[in-house]
Structures are given as structure tokens and as C-alpha cells.
């Protein structure tokens, strides 16, 4: 047990030099400064008396604290000398100062005097507010330190052993020494420690920057930002296990009381050392029955003033009210004054208020909060309006996030995963609407006791809802180099939902331009040019800002064929454009976060665009998509859930969470922030609020605001805090209808303000400033701008300089509901017509859309028969064209439908040209939206009513183009033939005999043979094409593609006529390469000299294409014809795969999904036969199958299912049963080749020969002898025949010689002349097998070596493995087991690289048999 204080007397100066290093206890604040800005749980503000040791036990956290590097005092113990605690200490001089040059030491009394002098410094150099705030921070730090010293003292020594006088001396101002750091530059944070003299205790202060706080003192000085504090207390004599018994509450209450008196003197300079608890007399006034919390605090009459008061028998002692008044006089905030007074109130049960502290630790928690958030609780918050009225600003909004820490961490973790892996993910957040009021400003009239509210304004800001939760991670995303895109769907908007998504990606271009270096922008420019080439205009149309982003890099390519490509663009091409763009610009170094708010108002097209970017497999985008929606406003059938299922189907990792109501502790923090009251003081009010609102964040603040309006909660000027009567609060009711609450409030506004809000609500969540300016010129809206400013001042809207924006969509809904339901259409219409008459839309596309959106609420009922009918129709047409130009297909379709609905009944007579124009636009806009029936009907209408071919030909062409993109059929062939006949081409109506087709082909071939290469190339330099020839070329081009699929017997005839037209009339147009290449492919009817001629013609066609400006639609057709028949014979098959993929990209870019699908089918087919890794192919084909299902491409899906089945077989996995989706010669031939390959590698050699005979029969029947397929059949059947002969044997070798040596090998040998890369190893394998079977060992072994070498050099890994396998079997047959074992091992490695587990297992068994 320590000695009584009366027996301990240490000189303060000497005791300050004592080195106390035996034992220390670290006490820390309630959270670490390492936390992210918005990641704190709000209940950290709602302190309970408990010691938090999180930082003490976390060495990593300790590293962030700033600790003075002063030396420890010496360990010598000084002689005892008694200094009366109520008397000043020895004179202070610099010589008595510090232990070294880093700290200055002074007695607390002397320090107070010095600090007061510093606070009264020159205001011309430093503002009074800055000096005052810095002084308050220092004193609050010392208060925290003294409280910690007393708490640790009470934990070590039994307080009840001390007398009252000893406790007073313990808490005397002369019993403490202050240490100030010389190095610390931040004003207000200079105090580095506080020491107690009797008994000798030393406390070191550590501070960490509390980055979560964004304070709002009058000067908004960031230098006064709050900090997290931590203290280490050192004891000289005791050990941790020497601690005394638990402190009695009564004893600790007396210690709190004395601490309060000490702190009162610290802040005011008054000496209250001798004051007794009974000197604090209770006030007579009880504020008209108002209570604070559950029981009234002790209130005192201000009329008594300071000094002597004989009426109360006070003996000259100050009353309690005077104590608070003196704190207020020196500038102490309401919260700081409350802390001091609540400490003073801890004297005894008799005088103890309900707000008095139960223990020191609870007071320490409040001091920590004061230091963490000085702007909120420590500094004065009174302001003065320009009119001279005092304003109480309560709970000014900062960036705090209430009760959503775990969810914020989850979003952050998800983004980090996306940024590190490069794999896109989705994050969906459901919940109710969650915006709250966090700033309430009152214009007040002050009497001496209370505040009367004259007027009230408020600001709505989300602090705990879905939107605010997502916004809380934006800073972290941008800190790692990420880009944040934010858009919001709107229930009432001039933008279609899909354009909201496109606007987000368009904004990304501006972000890149703003945050990227010139070098980075140039790298993006080069990548985009490589990706899009001369068709860069496709990207620029979808994302116009990309031009501005790259304007400083170089000139951008422009296509001459932009108009034609535009005619074919659709939703699929838009998705593909976004995929290609994101593939280029997003990466792990440039991760992107797309946040779309209010998904409940999205449409399938908009979510489809997001899905396309997230699920793109070939060009992975590094993007996190975050979407929020109100789950109480969506049904189980809502598209959101279909969107989630589709993401899952495409293996896009998706996280889903739901935000429920806030916890009670979070509600308390919210109420505390709104009222600017310490959390412990408003806990009782928060419990009632929580019980009534269920934690709904909007209702919390709405209910609180209504309590203020009714006077149930009001501000007490004397206490400078909010007071309430709990019983009255409990009796209040709250409706659960948000719109009712808001509408009730809006109805109280002025008529002009209401009208302005109604007008703005018609435009959605925001209204453009330029629209408001021009609309104000109309007589009905002349007051609009000023009224909008009133709405901003009233807190219902925000203004960012360019837009007026509702602070929340619930406010917009309430404003919109001010318009009566039966007149809403009329209101919109009149607003739109006022905009039109004010020329709002002149030279402004966005304003045009806004104008016509308002007018169209009255279409057609309010317009038909009026003078505005034709004007409104033309406005809709213009809006549709502009929407199509920026790829907003949905809006374009809606606008043109409105325009068509306004045509007169006899419009085909009175408005003929307009009818043609409108219906043509209707078809163009309907097709991209998937409304193919409506598009066809529009084109058919033109064809039926058109008076001449010139009027109808565009409709014919677009109808054929549209149908060919969906499902080519004989109907489109008939249309093409019909139009070509009308254009003067002599084409038969029906089918032709094969001899007639052959005759036409021969005639065309002779024309080409008579022309030199130079002459053919020079046709492209001629400029004699006209509109007729252009039209003929367009229809011949589509006729060639469609007939290849739907009428293969007539394909060669139509292509021959196409080529004849080009050669005869020497026409130079963009369709010339298609004519040459397609005819060259027709000549590939076998491995003959005609094939070489076809290759020559095809190469010339490619050269013309390369020399001209690339048109993606035509290039896709040219690539299909060339690499389908010619390229695969003469060029490496891997290169053909690449070109087919390029053709797929071109087809997708122009929206021709059918053409793109055929390219992809051929690419996959050739990847399989060229030995691409089977596991990679499996993943790709699974993705393509999902795409086929998504876009309903049955033809494409049938091919992919067939490929998938064979890939599974080659891997060795269980195959699937296919549903026969399609039939036709193309499919049957491809299926036969694939099945032969799978059967050969699986060891079913008899089936290979069966399939070969089946192919020969089918080829004869349909007359399709495609050389590359004939080569494949010869190769597979020849190997199967030799292997069967080896295993089963035959009586004679003659059949083998006839089948292999005389029939199949010549086919392969001829192919080898065309391309050694593709066919040399095949010839060597088949030769080697034949020679081995006929016992020509040496020759066979030489061919095996050639086969292995050439297959390896040509990168046919699977056929290299086959060569090794067959060579191993050969050597085993001749008894060379060592060589055989080595070859089987080589084969196993090849099959492993190929991904065929089936063949790997087989090679393993071969090796085990030899071993």
C-alpha cells in the first residue's frame, strides 16, 4: 500500500527528472489510425466504459504513431520537499527546462499562463480562431492525459485510503507538469506528455492522424484535423500485480468531481480548488418541464452571475450555472463544457445529475472523441448569417459511413481481387432507400433562455444507404490507379436506360484524358488503332469523347463506308464495340469500377451491355460492376435477377448483399452527429428513435427533424445543447410513407418554388442549367431560375454549376407527385411545347431529346388534328436519326414510332416522301432493338406503296441485310434475284441444271484467263461506277453469301454472273474484292489447275481489298470466301484461324451475327484439326454455346455442339448427346470430318473407313468436293486402313496398295505441292505407315523421322504425337524396345501439350507394357 500523500513530498522540478522505467502500462484510444477513411463502425462513437487494447497489442499499428524522441529522465530520486498544492510552484525559467533539445517542461500552472499569452498573440499574423482552436486542442490533450493519470492511479492505489484534502492536493493544478515537443509543428498538438508529481507518474502521449474525420471549424483549417491519441503511463515503484482492489464508485465519483474542478480552472483560469459539492445549488428554472435524457441535469439560473451571492448563502462561491457560463465565455464548445460540468456533477448522489460520469474511463472516452473530432465537438459551432442572425449549424455532413463497415470492406476486397487477377466481377446491393438529413440550419430568434425557430432549411445527403456505401470506396479505388464510373437510372428521364450505360463509358474517355500522361494516352491510341483500324468511326460513334481523349495523339482514321456500316449496326455490334474498347483500355494497371444506381429502373438492353463487358472471354476486361437497387420495388421476375443468372451462366463471379436497417448504436451515432451532441448524452433519445424507425436511415433523420419542428426537441441556449422530453418523444407518431412526409413538406413551400420543383421533376433526377435558362424566357416560366435557386437553398436540390439535381430520387418523386395524376400528360406536353417555342433544342442534341420527351407525353392524343402535328412528327424523326447516330437504338425506335403515329390517314398520298423517309427509319431503328417483325413490316410497307424502284431499293436492301443477319433463306435469294432483274441483270427465276452452271463458270473463267494480273488490279483504279452499279454490287454480294448457305447448287452460277458484271463493265466499287474472291473459291472443285487459277484470282481480290479502305462488312465476306476454300490450301492453317477470327470480329462489329457465326465455326473447326490445346478449346466452345443461346443462333449452336462433343471425346471425357438443331450439306460434311478425326485418335479405325465411304456418297450427291475436306478424308481413312491391315492382316496386299498408295497418297502429295506447312507431315506419316506394313523398314523409319520433324516445325502437336506413337509401334514390331519406349514417351509429352488425357493414358499403358 502506498504512503498517504501527506507523507510524500517531492519537488516538482526534481520529480520531473525522475526516470521511471521499471514498469509501464499502455492505454489507447478506441481505434487505430490505420483504418480506412470510411471504415469505422459508428458504435466507436457510442463509448461504453471499457479499455480497448487493440493498438497496445498490435505492433504494426504502433508504427504509425508519432512519438517524441526525448530521453528518459534520470533514475535518481530527489529529496523530499513539501510545496503546498494550492500555491504556485517555483519560478519557471528556460534553464529549468527540458531534458534535452527536443522537449520543454513546465509546471501546469506556468504552462497555462504561457498558453494564455500565446493565445492572445498578434491577430494580424495568425487569426484569432486559429489561436483559440490551437489552445483548445492543447488543453483538451492535457485534460485527456490528466484523466488517464488519475485512472491509472485509481487502479493501482485504493482511493479510500486518502483523505479529502489529500485527494484535493492530488488533483491540484500544481501537482502536474506539462512536456511540450519542440519538433512538433502542427498547432494544437505540441503537448507530448504530462507528469504527476505526487505520486510520481509519467504519461507519454502518442498521436496518429485520424483520417476518417473531415472537420468543419469556422476556418476549415485542416491543421486542426482530429487525431487518435494513445498514452503510456509509467510507474516507478509498483508492478502490474500490485494493483489494489476495484475502485469504489463513490470514491471514483469524488475523483471525477475534483478532475472537473481542475479542468474548469485549466480552461477558464479560475481557481476552484476549495469548492465543496454542496456549493453547487440547483437552478429554480426547469425549462418549462424540458428534460435532458431521462432525468433533468442540474440547471442553474444565469441571473446570479459570478462572484458573491448572499441571497443563496453561497459565501461568494460561484453557482453551477456560473461555472458553465464561464466556460462558454472563454470559447469552450457546448460538448467540452458538458464534459467538464458532468465531471463536476460526480460529487455525490445528492447533487449527481443523470449525465454525470459513472467512472473516469467513461470521461476518457469522451476526451478521446473530442480529440478525434475537434471540429464536431471541440470548437464553437455558432455562426452568423449575412443578415446578422445567429445560425446553429448542426451535424454538418462529412464522409462518415454509418453502420456499413463490413460491407464497405467487402466491396474494397472485391475490387482488389479484380485489380490483381484481371477477372471482372459483379457486386449487387439491395435494400430500401437510405438517404438522411445531416445538416439542419435554423434562423433563430434568441431570448435569454431559449431559441425560437423562425425558419428552417435542410440538406439531404446519404450517409448510410446503398449509394453512400458504394461512394465510400471511391477514394480507395482511385488511390490504386482505378477509374470510377458513376451513372444513375431514372424513372423519369430524357435518356433511355441503355444510353445511361453508354454515358458511363463515354465519361471514362474524359477520365483517361484527365489522369493519363501523354505517353499513356499515346499507348492507348496505338492500341485502339490496332484494334479498330480505319473503322475507328464505329467506336467514335458509340463513345464520342474518345475523339477528344486522343485528339492530341495524331489524326484519327475516317472511313468512307461509314454510312453503309451504320445501316447494319445493331445492339450486338454495340456490345462488341464496348468489349473491344474495354479490352484495350482496362487492365490490372487501369482497373475500372462501374457503379450504376437504381437498377430497378434499368431495361434489358442496358444490363445486356454490362453483361457483354463482364462476360467477354476473349478480351478480358478488368472491371468491377457495382449495382444497387431497391429490393422492395422489384418482383422475382424483374430483369435484375435474370441478369444475375446470366452472369452466373457465363461464370462471372457475382456477390450479392442486402442492406437492412441500422443497428441501434449506428442510429445513436447518426443522431449524435445531427445534433452535435456527445453520443452518451443522446442515447436515450436514440433508443426511442430506433424503436420507432426500425433503423431506416431516412426515417431516423426525418423523424428527428419533425421532432425539432414540433418543438419536442429544441435547443437550449444556456446549455448550448439540444434538450427533449422523453415522454413526448415516445408519444410522437411517424408514418412509414416517405413520399407523404416529403409531399407534406413541399406543400408548405411557395407556389413558385413548388412549380419549379414540379418542372424539374419532369426531367428526372437532374435538369440542365441551359434548359432552365432558355425556358425562363417563356412567359409561363419567367421565375424558374430564381425558384430553382430557392429550391437549392431549401435543401431540395443541388447545383454543380451545370445541372440542378434533386438531392435524392425520393425528393424528385415527391415533387412529381405534386402534379395531379390526371393532368400529368398535359403538364409534360405544355412544358415541352414551351421549350420548343423557346428554341431550347436549337443546336443541342441533348436539349432536343429533352424537348421531345416532354412533348411525347401528349402523343398522339393531344396533338392529332392540331397545327403542331407535322412539327412534332419531324422533331421525333430528327431525334430518332440523332439517337441512331450515337447508337441509342431503343430511343431511336421510340422516337420514330411516335413520328409514324402522327402521319395523316392519307399520308401515302399527301405525304409520300415523308412516308418513305419515316418507314425507312422505322425499319432501321426496329432491327437493332430485336423487333425484326416490325422492321420487316416497315420495309414491306415501302415496297408495297413505293411508286418506283429508286424509292423501294433501300427497303429491299435493308430487308435482305436484316434477314441475312438473322437466318439466311431462299426468300432473300428471291428478293435479290428480283431486284437484280429490275436493275437489268438477266437472271433465271428458278433452278438450273448442273451443265448450265458449269457453262457459266467456264465462261467467267475464260474472261479471267484473258486478263493479266495488272489488268485485273487496274480495275480498282477505274472511277466509272454509278448508283446502278453500286446497287447491283450490293445485291450480288448478298446473293453470293446467302446462296452458299441456302442454295449451294446455284452459288457458283450467281458468283460467276457477279464476276462477269465486274469484268465486263470494269466497275470499281467496294464489292469488287467479293466478286473476285468468291469466284476464285468456286474454282476449287478439286486439286487441279483450276484450283491454282482460283488461288490467283482470290489473291488478286485480297490485294484489291488491302489497297482500298477497309469496309468491315465486305471484309468479313471476303475473308469467309477466301479462307474457307483457298487460304486453307495454300497458307498455314493457323494463319487461317486468325483470319477467321478477324472476320468474326468484323461481322460482329457491323451486327451481322450470322456471318460472324460462320467465321467462328470455321475457326473452331480448324483449331481442332490443327492441334490447338483441347482444354482451351473446351472452355472457348462452352462460352460460344452460351452466346448462341443468348442470341438465339440455332445454326451456330448446332455447329458448336458438334465441336464440343468431339473435343470431349478427344480429351477422354464423357461425351454429350446432341439435339439435332440443323441439317444441310455444310453441317454434314463438317460433322463427318470431325467424327473421323475423333474416331481415328480413339482407335475406332473401322468407323473411320465407314465415315469415309459415307462422305464420298454425300459429296457425290450434293456435288461439294471441297479440296481441304477431301484431303482430310484421304489422310484419316488412309491411316485407318494401314493400321487395320497391321492389326488384322489381309490375304493380299493389293487392296492396301490400291487404297493407300494409288488413291490416297496422290491426293496428299498434290496438296503438299500447295502447302508443305499443312500437308508435308501428313504425306510422311501415311508413307511411313504404308512402308512399315509392306515391310520396307528402313524407308519407313526415314519417313517417320520426316513426319515427326515436319509436324513439329509446322506446330501440329497432335500429329507430332501421332507420328511418335505410330513410329513407336513400328519399332516395337521390329523388336527395338528402347527406341519404341523413347518414342512413346515423346508421344506422351505431345499429347499432354495437346490436352488429350485419353491418349496420355494410352501412352502410359504402352510404356508399362514395354517396361
Description:
It is globular, with a radius of gyration of 43 Å. Helix 48 (1153-1170) runs parallel beside helix 50 (1194-1211). Helices cover 55% and strands 9% of the residues. A six-stranded antiparallel β-sheet has the order 1-6-5-4-3-2. The chain has a five-stranded parallel β-sheet with strand order 12-13-14-9-15, sandwiched between helices. A hairpin with a 4-residue loop joins strand 4 (191-196) and strand 5 (201-209). The protein is of the alpha+beta class. It is built from 59 helices and 20 strands.
- In which range does the helix fraction lie? 55-70%
Distance between the termini: 87 Å
Helix and strand content put the structural class at: alpha+beta
Secondary structure tally, helices:
59
Please outline the helices and strands.
Layout: H1 12-15, E1 23-28, H2 59-62, E2 103-107, H3 108-119, H4 128-156, H5 164-170, E3 176-181, E4 191-196, E5 201-209, E6 227-235, H6 249-268, H7 320-329, H8 334-344, H9 360-372, H10 374-377, E7 382-384, E8 390-394, H11 405-421, E9 425-431, E10 435-446, E11 451-462, H12 466-471, H13 474-479, E12 483-488, H14 497-515, H15 518-532, H16 536-542, H17 545-549, H18 562-568, H19 571-585, E13 592-597, H20 604-615, E14 623-630, H21 639-649, E15 654-659, H22 664-675, H23 683-693, H24 697-710, E16 713-716, E17 721-724, H25 726-731, H26 738-746, H27 751-761, E18 766-768, H28 769-775, H29 784-793, E19 797-799, E20 803-806, H30 809-816, H31 824-837, H32 845-855, H33 869-885, H34 889-901, H35 907-910, H36 912-926, H37 932-945, H38 949-966, H39 970-982, H40 994-1009, H41 1013-1018, H42 1027-1046, H43 1048-1065, H44 1072-1082, H45 1089-1107, H46 1112-1130, H47 1133-1149, H48 1153-1170, H49 1174-1190, H50 1194-1211, H51 1225-1242, H52 1245-1262, H53 1267-1288, H54 1294-1314, H55 1316-1333, H56 1337-1353, H57 1357-1373, H58 1377-1394, H59 1397-1410
Parallel strand pairs: 9-14, 9-15, 12-13, 13-14
Antiparallel strand pairs: 1-6, 2-3, 3-4, 4-5, 5-6, 7-8, 8-10, 10-11, 16-17, 18-20, 19-20
